Amino acid sequence: MPELRVAVMMPFGGTIQNEKDEHEKQRVRIRQRRCMLEFLRLKHIIENRIKLKLPEKKGGAQVQYKVELFQAQVGRIEAGALKLIKEADVVIGMITENNVNVVYELAIRMALRDVPIVIFKKDSSVSLPVYLAPYAHINYHAGDNEDVAKQIQKIAESPAPSVITAAGDAPTDLIEVIDGSDGTLKTALEEALTKKLLEDPPELADFIKDLIDRTVHDPKNVLEGWDNNYYPFSIVMVRWKGKTGKVGYCEDDLIGDPRVCVWNEGFLALFNLAEEAATKYSRSDEGLTMRFLTERLEELNYVDDKDLADFTNDQDFLARDIVFNEGYGKATVPIRFNSNHKDARFTNSNYLPCLIGRRPFGDAQGEHVTFLIVSYVDITAKPRPQAKGKRTRNAKT
């Protein structure tokens, strides 16, 4: 019986930001358990309830599926994970929230091999990238079985939860509900997997080479379609000769300075750049480096001198941790725009550059690249709206 590997990519409930906040820790842990239970739900249906056979031209034997977890979280894609993206017989992506990492990895699969099966949540809170929209096979609401949802929530909120791991099986009480009530999702998955069996196997590309020289799989194409759904973002490309240090990189490992290679409209507006000019600068010897961008802010007088000096010093400090030590240092000084910015969205506002993802490609011992995904988050203090019928402290009597 042939065994086909199925890789599932999905968000997993986020991470705890404040270890001292017990309420936050509890909320995040419940979300994480709920997401893991959703994965085990898919795993149980595919491995135990779907019985399909190969087409006659492929032998006609019954197929046994093996479902594996790909945790799409902020961090590096290790060699084993890249291998799973490339070699899995089927990839399923669950887009139930705006998670750039899940979409990024699904797009990589499309560039490397074939179209994934996409399960998406069709409502106003989730934006489906344009390049994935034609391939969104299953509406998440097809799996919105009330009995299953209640059981998942009940288990996730249990005061003494059992250990739930991707390697194990779904809890027995959840399996009973799935087997008795989850026919709609089973049918949708069965139809999508049947189509995959009928497809001819694709010819694999030399993906590492293509990603490094960026002639075929340009990251801009990978993230196209998300331009208007997020804060200003950019992708910074770092080129390496090889990794010579035992821990992290050294300056001699670099090929040129890290430079922006991908951007959205918000990023261009942030630095008052036209698309044509940004493309020209990115291809020049200097490139869209941090030095270029800070000098542009100074030239345009968008940021006061002291604020720009504070921002530059903070970025220089972070570069050592993020670029060379492969860390996730957090910026503490935002770009504090003054009233001179020509775009009203940024006038007198504070935008903090935040590293939200790192993706290395290639053999670390030889020439390779690292892509850093940076989002500029608006942290400007907004005045609190006054409640109707109440006067402010300084209101006249």
What labels would you give this structure?
single chain; 397 residues; alpha/beta; Rossmann fold; Beta-Lactamase; 5-stranded parallel beta sheet
Molecular structure report:
The protein is of the alpha/beta class. The protein has 2 domains: 3-204, 3-Layer(aba) Sandwich (Rossmann fold), CATH 3.40.50; 213-378, Beta-Lactamase (2-Layer Sandwich), CATH 3.30.450. The chain contains 12 helices and 10 strands. It has helices at 22-49, 79-87, 100-112, 146-156, 172-181, 183-198, 207-213, 219-223, 265-270, 275-282, 290-300, 305-324; strands at 3-10, 64-71, 90-95, 117-120, 138-139, 233-240, 259-263, 335-336, 350-361, 368-378. Strands 2-1-3-4-5 form a 5-stranded parallel beta sheet, with helices on both faces. Helix 1 links the parallel strand 1 and strand 2 (64-71). Helix 1 packs across helix 4 and helix 4 runs antiparallel to helix 5. The chain is globular. The termini are far apart.
Total number of strands:
10
The CATH architecture name of the largest domain reads 3-Layer(aba) Sandwich
Average pLDDT, to the nearest integer? 79
- Poorly predicted regions are 72-76, 203-230, 390-397
Oligomer: single chain
Query: What structural category arises from helix and sheet content?
Result: alpha/beta
> Helicity range of the residues?
25-40%
- Give the ordered list of helices and strands: EHEHEHEEHHHHHEEHHHHEEE
Alpha carbon gyration radius: 24 Å
The CATH class designation of the largest domain is Alpha Beta
Give the count of structural domains.
2
Strand content: 15-25%
CATH topology of the largest domain: Rossmann fold
Shape designation: globular
- Kindly, what is the distance between the CA atoms of the first and last residues, rounded to a whole number of angstroms? 84 Å
Strand order of the largest sheet: 2-1-3-4-5
Tally the helices.
12
Characterize the largest beta sheet: strand count, sense, and whether it forms a barrel: 5 strands, parallel
